[in-house]
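Please complete every field before forwarding. Incomplete forms are returned to the sender.

SECTION A: IDENTIFIERS
Entry label: holo-220
Bound molecule: flavin mononucleotide
Molecule representation: SMILES string

SECTION B: INPUTS
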Amino acid sequence: MEAFECIKSRQSYRAFKPDPVPGETLQKIVEAASNSPSYTNTQPWEMAVVTGKKKDTLSQKLLELAKANAPTSPDIPAPASWPEQMLRRREEHGARRLNTIGVKREDKEGREALRLMNYEFYGAPCVAFLFMDSSLGEWSIFDMGLFAQNLILTAYSLGVGSCIQASVTEYAKEIKEFLDVAEDKKLLVSIPMGYPAPDAVLNTYRSLKKAPQEFVQWHG
Ligand SMILES: Cc1cc2nc3c(=O)[nH]c(=O)nc-3n(C[C@H](O)[C@H](O)[C@H](O)COP(=O)(O)O)c2cc1C
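SECTION C: PREDICTED COMPLEX
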């Protein structure tokens, strides 16, 4: 797939076929992402890829925690507040996503069901977790973002859909324990990956994007 087409048409997928992603394809995705730029070439990325029974067991554990609203321990806390415009976008995103699947705002159960799907990795056969050392600072988080983007774009170019997740990192402590990752690593995101379910209504959701004239100043 041509790079422009890949970037322009990528979207987050939230429903997957059960078919596993072949090991060679996953290796290819990781290999391409390893070519990401980073601050003074420090390459802070560390990663766990979880599939099969191990993924199912982890998902079950997370689902139980989320259902019970168990205490959370994210390594990167959610912001306490947002600027007005972003708050509006967040609300719009939430409302439009519910609308796509026909769940009304006042339908608490429907909203909860959608929230919980995160912890089942939206049914993806594979999930990647991205970590970095907790001694690292903001530039490394920037690098991790570049790595994540290259990972999902490569995946998409090979027909593999994905959805970056912050929600699941609420249970960073339990995830690190389960994966035998040192406690002092920072879990940044989880990324379910798989072949998108073609008829799933969840995958018909398209987020709204700012137009370039809203964020670019051209000089000269
Ligand atoms: C850092 C980050 C965290 C995200 N967390 C979640 C999440 O927990 N659950 C989810 O369904 N989508 C999550 N998303 C996906 C965003 O909702 C999505 O990227 C955004 O709405 C734009 O849609 P698009 O990816 O289809 O262009 C996250 C995306 C990013 C970059």
